[in-house]
Specification:
The structure is a homodimer of 104-residue chains.
Chain A (H helix, E strand, L loop, with lengths): L8 E9 L6 H12 L7 E8 L8 E7 L2 H9 L1 H14 E11 L2
Antiparallel strand pairs in A: 1-3, 1-4, 2-3
Amino acid sequence: MSTLTPGRIRHTVSFTLVHEPGSEQERDFLAAQAALGAIPGVEAYELLREVSPKNDFRFGCSMEFADTAAYQAYNEHPDHVAFVNDRWQAEVQDFLEIDYEPLD
Amino acid sequence: MSTLTPGRIRHTVSFTLVHEPGSEQERDFLAAQAALGAIPGVEAYELLREVSPKNDFRFGCSMEFADTAAYQAYNEHPDHVAFVNDRWQAEVQDFLEIDYEPLD
């Protein structure tokens, strides 16, 4: 039913930016966001464009972790903490985190 | 950057049900939801448990389409239309659709 095997977690965040669409600031933020995919423990990292007319988010990222310890290590990783403090809090207008595990 | 190749679409829906957690009604709805994965054109179907403490959704489904025509065919497929009319509208308390395409 899922490619997520038991114990694994898929972490997703949908977001909009304060920047003008297509701007250099937007590109720079997305590049910094994409760099999070290099943090140890991050698997299947994807930076995506949100296209549903039924919500206002414009981008998304998706990543998987082998277990909650890997997820926690990512959250606490200095590169992630710095990104949240230095970029996310100033440049993200709205966001929603949605995390999935296998159903059973 | 993404497993989604250009032109492909990942359609996701996060949702909560009116049913008691663990109830027979919940199981029955989820089984009907899972059956949508058999509709022609639906790829990489997943039925998932939403686990983030930062939102109130309890389940999710994710599927991919080769292109917008396949997505539209799914939306208009009699099995999908019947599911929305007969089950979704009565048994889903809240939901959010988020659709992704490759960023570039």
